[in-house]
Design brief:
alpha/beta; Rossmann fold; 255 residues; single chain
Length: 255
């Protein structure tokens, strides 16, 4: 638990000048635990990696009395950045966490050097019921270990908070999300697992097109949580992206 009121894991060396830290942002109702395999691989390459449980979720459940909205989570991440003196970081987010990351990058551009959005989940204009159906269709494509981990996290966070967070995320997707993306100036990589039933190729390419400097990519053999199902491939993709120049293609880029 950090002294700003919510829990965060850390991997690798302390933050240092010349090497951007990486902050990994989980999806709705979950914890940062499903980012741990990726965090360990990034840290093995020398990166400073921070993996929070967002306020109101899992081990940070007590940090908020009610489920916080997307903007509130973004402001909490901004406080974490400043408290840990992370500087302009690489923000890696999955699913609904992509909305939090976009809000942070739009509101606090100096805190985000690069942005990696993995399977941005909520497509504007798609109903909540259809989004849930896509999630159900994705579940059999994910590793069994992830399903058990997610079920535990959902129980810890609590069904009422998960439902409230889903409502917040749907409203953000219908309103602020695309506007936030259009304000992002950091080079951005939008990645999906090739088997993802939640974030379609068409939608991920649209997300990449909304930011000022975006590109889209796919990871074969992975589904919605591509960072968990294929952590080595995801780590390689992120590492190549973080050392590349804006506007240049990256490993695994979709055509």
């Amino acid at each position: 638990m950090t002294d700003i009121g919510f829990f965060a894991r850390s991997f690798g060396p302390p933050p240092r000048e010349g090497r951007p830290a990486m902050v990994l942002v989980h999806g709705l109702g979950l914890s940062g635990r499903y980012f741990v395999p990726l965090a360990r691989r990034l840290a093995a390459g020398g990166a400073t990696v921070v993996v929070p449980d967002l306020p109101g979720n899992a081990r940070s459940r007590a940090a908020e009395h009610r489920a916080p909205g997307v903007g509130q989570c973004a402001e909490a991440l901004a406080r974490l950045h400043r408290r840990l003196s992370l500087g302009p970081s690489v923000l890696v987010a999955n699913s609904v966490g992509c909305q939090v990351a976009a809000a942070l990058a739009a509101r606090h551009p100096r805190l985000v050097g690069r942005l990696v959005l993995v399977g941005p989940a909520l497509e504007p204009g798609v109903s909540g019921w259809r989004q849930c159906a896509r999630l159900v269709a994705d579940a059999p494509r994910e590793p069994l270990g992830l399903l058990g981990l997610a079920a535990f996290d959902y129980l810890v966070t609590g069904p009422l908070r998960c439902a409230a967070s889903f409502g917040h995320a749907l409203r953000d997707a219908a309103g602020a999300f695309e506007g936030n993306l259009s304000r992002v100036r950091a080079p951005t990589l939008v990645v999906r697992g090739a088997g993802d039933t939640i974030a379609s190729g068409t939608w991920t390419r649209r997300v990449a097109g909304l930011v000022a400097d975006g590109r889209a990519g796919e990871i074969p053999g992975a589904a919605h949580a591509a960072h968990y199902g294929a952590p080595d491939a995801m780590a390689a993709l992120i590492e190549k992206f973080t050392v590349g120049e804006p506007g240049r293609s990256t490993v695994g880029e979709a055509g």
